[in-house]
Amino acid sequence: MSKKNTIIILVSFIFLALPKIVFGAPSITGVSGNIANGESIVISGSGFGTSGPNVVLFDSFEKGSVGNNISIVSNSADVGNWNGLGNIIQIYSSDFSISGTKAMKVDWSNFYGSGPYLRYSNVQNSDILISWWQYMPTNKNVPGTNGPEAGQPNWKWFWIGDEGDDWPWGSDYVTVCLSNNNCDATIAVFPADDLENPQREGGDWIETSFMKGTWVRVSVAMKNAVSGGYIWNQEVSSSGNIIQLNQTGISTAHLTDPWNILSLPGFGRQDNTAAVYYDDVYVATGASARARIEIGNASTYNASTNLALLTPTSWGASSISATVRGGSFTGGNNAYLYVVDSTGAVNATGYPITIGSGSGGDTTAPTVTNFQIPSAASSLTVSITNFTASDNVGVTGYKLTESSTKPNAGDPGWNGTPQSTYTFSTEGTKTLYAWAKDAAGNVSNSLNDSVVITLPDTTAPNSPQGLNIL
Description:
The protein is 0% helix and 40% strand. The protein is built from no helices and 31 strands. Strands 3, 4, 5, 7, 12, 13, 14 and 17 form an eight-stranded antiparallel beta sheet that branches. Strands 6, 8, 9, 10, 11, 15 and 16 form a seven-stranded antiparallel beta sheet that branches. A four-stranded antiparallel beta sheet has the order 1-2-21-20, with no helix packed on it.
């Protein structure tokens, strides 16, 4: 393991920008299903992009037994599984957690080294997104603060690279904390061992929002490329939603080095006073690795100081199916749903939702309480005399149809307020159906009413043929 104290950092220009809010960004119009941890939902809208991420790992560590080593058995995580263990203590623990009751505890009491390994298909000239929550108790230290190398703190939060190279991994990147004072000396996402050409770029000293005794979510998105690569690094905590790095147009890879392995944490020095906890680890690959679904605690993404990543099961431009991963959100919490596309664009305002209990979210559909139209009309455009609805949480949409088939929450034509008119295409006896929906995607049964439309006869009579008027 390299223990270099001198690190060459090649820094490109940095834009401190949160996910883009642009014209044509994703827009959510409805959600159906129970918005509760582990439940399936369908998100409807537009601008999602035609392809989504390939999620290779999501681990909430809830499936393991407290005190046991992190499992590398197939499908032992919520999605996928780890492939190997490091040479330090890495166990399921109920000491602290961001979601559920368990997290992964990493302890450097007996040895230096890394946490568990994740192997994945080569990411070459393509993208990867890694996200995790991390926590260090106030009575613990950054590894290397004490122990055989006392006074030399070194905690690599993550480490990725090409396992096909001899150690160190080819085209590797790490984030490293070099201070026990709340990591106030931290270099984010930099090439730790740049031994080949072309020399790679990235990384900078940052003012991390990490603090002992506080959970922090760290997310890193990168493109493996000899040129035209990027690095994006976000930290989310009670202190804020901070973009630490947003570097574009840079070299992040050597000519023959893909990324195919991740260790989390990447490294720590032996220290019997050092321990850290990781939870809700998410890894996605592919050209659309940055595309994602998140639950936030504020009505705009940039203002959210608590975010939870969901795991999509199918992805289309106007519909996404996903499994809810609730993070620290609990039943009854009001929250907001976000879709981020592969370019980083996100819906301008969050779609309001209510988090359900363990048995499911809001499953109570609204009720259309009154609906009336005139019994007769002389125009194709008919006024709506009365249209009201109620819901246990709140009505978010109103819709009128000429079909008795219940519409989907994501269908076009929903309106935020009751319609005041409706235009038919032809005259005759017509029946109109009124519907309502709520934020959870529940759609009401309908009330209907009928109207007979008789259009005025505005055609002048023709003169009888063959009749001469003298």
